[in-house]
Design brief:
By secondary structure, the chain is α+β, with helices and mostly antiparallel strands. Helix content is 37%, strand content 23%. Helix 4 packs across helix 5, helix 6 crosses helix 9 and helix 11 crosses helix 12.
Length: 450
């Protein structure tokens, strides 16, 4: 009863489960998820809410995994609970995406949780992380070189994910289940120390408890709470530093202290679903004062760009087959040039408003144009106060502070072999032939995502 009372007090303090909540509960059949479910059944006598179990067979442990799935379904049936279960070939996905089983397992679990949440209109997801999990996560991240934010461990309530038993030690969970003769499944791989987390649980923590401090886990948990409190007190709001394009202005960032810069970078990566560690933050920090454009690989899918004014995150460009190097077309042809939609029409004053994706060019209605990418030695004729001047496209890019890695992907529009538009950057001057009739044409080139 004391155990349930502490869970109830923790729940009320953190407002994890409230009246009329609909909750998806991750259920493996192991002691933690069984204990969580038993406590939720008790909580339903105090708070009016609904919950549904979700089980995933990762297909990694052969017959043992199938028996876990069978047990989970039988447990749900016995307790008159609805369960959603699914088999996912984690090994196959990990091999295809070049990720670890642990990464893929976590991604697929939460993907399925969200899928079921949408199906049943759930507003929260509950997982069975306990106090030992928090200590192990802290030590795991400390060994890997985490930031101060990363050392918070596992938060009890993040977004719509709640962890109602995160303040309960594993021993207390097992004692409760065994005392009350409540069945659960054991994952034998938890006793293999081939994995870092298992080794921390099986080797490191018992060694420190035996050799140095029997209350080691309590001391670590107290430290986790202090770190959380410190992070709250000294927290910067990311929304105050990013613009509508999800970019951080470099000069504003560099006005902060080193500690706050790293804190903000850590939040920036986390908000973009990119794993954070100390090495990654230090690497980004080291390029902030360097001249020119710099980039850092963050993971297999993302890179961080530091240009002249901003730092931002981009998805790595996939290699496309059949990429067009150039296309010849006529006014009013509408088509797609790689990742750009190209449109043109007669310009209507007071209706059409040019912006970086549009430009007004004065051309004959039968004009033939060419669209391509930059070539060595390209020059553009610009209109100046005293006539025209000729500039290298390379110099234009440098003056406009266009990042090096994007220059080769900016289309260039030509008329009669003269550059009339570096798309989104600069408009060129057009030499007119008096024998032709010219009209104002609005060209639109909008970049589209993959």
């Amino acid at each position: 009863m004391e155990l349930f009372k502490s869970i109830l007090e923790f729940n009320n303090k953190k407002r994890l489960i409230e009246e009329n909540d609909i909750i998806v509960v991750g259920f493996s059949g192991g002691p933690d998820s069984v204990f969580l479910t038993e406590m939720l059944l008790k909580l339903q006598k105090v708070i009016s809410f609904k919950f549904y179990l979700v089980h995933i067979n990762h297909m990694l442990r052969g017959e043992d995994a199938n028996l876990d799935e069978f047990f989970s379904c039988e447990y749900a049936k016995k307790n008159k609970l609805e369960i959603f279960h699914k088999r996912i070939n984690i090994s196959e996905i990990a091999k295809k995406n070049k990720k670890t089983f642990e990464e893929v397992g976590r991604e697929e679990r939460y993907k399925f949780f969200k899928e079921i949440s949408k199906l049943i209109s759930a507003n929260k997801i509950a997982t069975a992380h306990n106090k030992d999990d928090q200590v192990e996560t802290f030590l795991f991240k400390l060994i890997r070189g985490s930031s101060l934010q990363g050392l918070e461990g596992i938060n009890s309530n993040k977004f719509n994910i709640i962890r109602p038993i995160s303040e309960i030690y594993k021993d207390d969970i097992l004692n409760y289940l065994n005392k009350n003769k409540i069945q659960y499944r054991i994952d034998k791989t938890n006793f293999e120390n081939e994995y870092t987390r298992n080794s921390i649980r099986l080797d490191l923590i018992p060694f420190i408890e035996k050799r140095y401090n029997s209350k080691f886990k309590d001391k670590i948990y107290s430290l986790i709470e202090e770190i959380r409190e410190n992070n709250i007190q000294n927290s910067l709001s990311l929304k105050n530093y990013i613009n509508e394009d999800n970019k951080i202005k470099l000069d504003v960032l560099l006005n902060l202290s080193s500690f706050n810069i790293k804190q903000l970078l850590s939040k920036f990566l986390t908000e973009n679903n990119i794993s954070v560690n100390r090495k990654k933050i230090e690497e980004i920090f080291s390029i902030l004062n360097k001249n020119g454009t710099k980039k850092i690989d963050l993971d297999l899918r993302h890179k961080l760009i530091k240009d002249y004014n901003y730092i931002y995150i981009e998805k790595k460009v996939k290699e496309h087959k059949n990429v067009k190097s150039e296309v010849i077309f006529k006014v009013f042809d509408n088509f797609q040039f790689n990742n750009y939609y190209v449109k043109s029409k007669l310009y209507e004053e007071n209706i059409d408003k040019p912006d970086k994706n549009n430009i007004i060019l004065t051309l004959p209605l039968d004009a033939e144009l060419k669209l391509r990418y930059r070539q060595e030695g390209d020059k553009i004729i610009l209109t100046a106060s005293k006539g025209t001047i000729t500039k290298k496209v390379k110099d234009i890019f440098i003056n406009e502070k266009i990042p090096k890695d994007t220059r080769e992907n900016i289309p260039i529009l030509l008329y009669e072999n003269e550059i009339v538009w570096i798309v989104g950057v600069k408009k060129g001057s057009i030499s007119k032939n008096k024998s032709k009739n010219y009209e104002q044409i609005l060209f639109s080139m909008k970049e589209v995502s993959d």
